[in-house]
Amino acid sequence: xxxxxxxxxxxxxxxxxxxxxxxxxxxxxxxxxxxxxxxxxxxxxxxxxxxxxxxxxxxxxxxxxxxxxxxxxxxxxxxxxxxxxxxxxxxxxxxxxxxxxxxxxxxxxxxxxxxxxxxxxxxxxxxxxxxxxxxxxxxxxxxxxxxxxxxxxxxxxxxxxxxxxxxxxxxxxxxxxxxxxxxxxxxxxxxxxxxxxxxxxxxxxxxxxxxxxxxxxxxxxxxxxxxxxxxxxxxxxxxxxxxxxxxxxxxxxxxxxxxxxxxxxxxxxxxxxxxxxxxxxxxxxxxxxxxxxxxxxxxxxxxxxxxxxxxxxxxxxxxxx
Length: 321
Prior knowledge:
The protein has helices spanning 11-22, 36-46, 54-60, 73-82, 97-109, 124-127, 156-171, 280-294, 302-318; strands at 2-7, 26-32, 63-66, 86-90, 114-117, 138-144, 176-184, 193-200, 205-211, 218-225, 228-233, 238-246, 256-259, 265-271. The protein has 321 residues and is of the alpha/beta class. The protein folds into 2 domains: 2-112, NAD(P)-binding Rossmann-like Domain (Rossmann fold); 122-241 and 271-277 and 311-318, Dihydrodipicolinate Reductase, domain 2 (2-Layer Sandwich). Strand 7 and strand 8 (193-200) form a beta hairpin. The radius of gyration is 22 Å and the shape is globular. It starts with a strand and ends with a helix. InterPro entries: Gfo/Idh/MocA-like_OxRdtase_N, Gfo/Idh/MocA_Oxidoreductases, GFO_IDH_MocA-like_dom, NAD(P)-bd_dom_sf.
């Protein structure tokens, strides 16, 4: 079992602590949080060992799980990597692209593994259909959330939209050609609503909308490709696949048949993949342990986390133009 320690015991940090303790791939050694009074309350309530410094925690573990505010990701990861520790870093990987590139280089130089916490990759609604997504040419995503003061220290692009950026980059096997975007600050000092259009070199277009001041929550993405439409509801954990195939000579009584202007007939088929319930955070942590133990590339590598951040910052740069 890998010895693991958590940096940061806020809302998400406490979830990571609980799941690491439950996992059969890790031995939870303890945690560190700079808020001494709060950290002691967490230690007293749950019985986790509280370290008195970041360095003492890093020295005691094999894997450092970084669940701190984004601004501190770089310093925490740099410290851990330089001591030869593997790092799991919550999204976004770092605050700036330069920091992300430096972390990626450090990890390579010190021969350690790193994974970024883009948890939607492990959402069962997405994993059920990801192998069906083949060369999508139009993608539309909506990630809407009710207002929550937590996370408003960064633009909505880094808070919410980056989830969908990562998902899209994982399925579109082409380089980004151009980006246009707009954002509006309504309550926060940074944009609360944003829309972005990403055009890829292969012709695929992705249209992303994110809001953190909506009246209801929504996390849906739709993928359109040749002869297929795939819908993923990340919030409700549901998926639907609509396929079009050449219509048979004699279709069934209830078959849905479409005919185009050239007279070609297609039959529509509906599929609702079976969704296997899971805990996506536990799955991503366990997958990282597997990558370390098997010496393989993590499912969400530091490189992929860096590319998601790169696109996110290009979107944010559009706001000031």
